Amino acid sequence: MLATALHYSHTLLKEVLQPGDIAVDATMGNGHDTCFLAELVGRTGHVYAFDLQAQALENTVTRLAAAGLTNRAALIHGGHETLSQYIPETQPIKAAIFNLGYLPQSDKSVITLPATTRQALDALLLRLAPRGRIVLVCYYGHAGGPEELASVRAYCEALPQEQYNVLNYQFINQKNQPPILFCIESKPV
Ligand SMILES: C[S@@+](CC[C@H](N)C(=O)[O-])C[C@H]1O[C@@H](n2cnc3c(N)ncnc32)[C@H](O)[C@@H]1O
Fold first, then answer.
1. pLDDT attached to residue 148
2. How far is the CA of 98 from the centre of ligand 1 (A)?
3. Residue among 103, 104, 111, 35 at smallest CA distance from 79
4. pLDDT of 88-143, one tens digit each?
5. Cα torsion at 143, 146, 149, 153 (round to 10°)?
6. Which of the listed residues 28, 33, 34, 55 should we mutate to test ligand 1's pocket, taking the one with most ligand atoms within 8 A of CB?
7. Cβ(26)–Cβ(98) below 8 Å
8. Tens digit of pLDDT for each residue in 35-82?
9. What is the CB neighbour count within 10 angstroms for residue 188?
10. Residues 6 or more apart from 125 whose CB is under 8 A from it?
11. Which CATH class is domain 5-174?
12. Distance between CA 61 and CA 140 in Å, rounded?
């Protein structure tokens, strides 16, 4: 069976992340991706995870503790657009993941937004290691979702092919707006 966008996002991360790497979960939510990244970077790597909601941090603290991964992640109670304040420009980042939209079973008014998503992408591109990947899974069925999807698509399409490979993965015959995936991969210099 073809993988869902969510499942494929993990395949794309798994292909590049190795023990010792630095990774970013730009939308922590309940911490599923933070835990996944923490497993992949191993004891010598580190994950920076961002979210605006205190509930997201609480849920992620619990999830990391249950998996014995607490020491591998820095949980930042702030937007991904503040990434530059936490990660120096000289620190290569091997992979980052965004799950754009709102946190299910939570405050649906807290959604990711085009301007701050772009700001975070700009900061990540400055730090992206050669062959590093930024994966975006865009949920767009909510108010504001189509605008953010259009913004992400335009951002990705404008990236120079000399520097980046950009992938778009989506099912085109499914109802209920299944998420659409983009992956930006930095070409080696
Ligand atoms: C679709 S959920 C993420 C789900 C998460 N990957 C998981 O494993 O549960 C989107 C999350 O983005 C968060 N968010 C919204 N704006 C944000 C921003 N500017 N920076 C970081 N997180 C943000 C929301 O609070 C929400 O928790």
1. 96
2. 8
3. 111
4. 999 999 999 999 999 887 778 899 999 999 999 999 999 999 999 999 999 998 88
5. -160
6. 28
7. yes
8. 999 999 999 999 999 999 999 999 999 999 999 999 999 999 999 999
9. 7
10. 134, 184, 186
11. alpha beta
12. 27
| CA pair distance 106, 123, nearest whole angstrom | 28
Torsion of CA 23, 125, 119, 41, to 10 degrees: 0
- Contact 40/14 with Cβ under 8 angstroms? yes
Q: What six digits make up the tokens of 33?
A: 């991706």
Q: Residue 100 is which amino acid?
A: L
Q: Where are the domains of the chain?
A: 5-174
Query: Which atom of ligand 1 approaches the CA of 32 most closely?
Result: 8
Closest by CA to 41, choosing from 64, 66, 7, 8, is 64
Residues lining ligand 1, Cβ inside 6 A:
26-27, 29-33, 50-53, 56, 79-81, 99, 101-103, 110, 112, 116
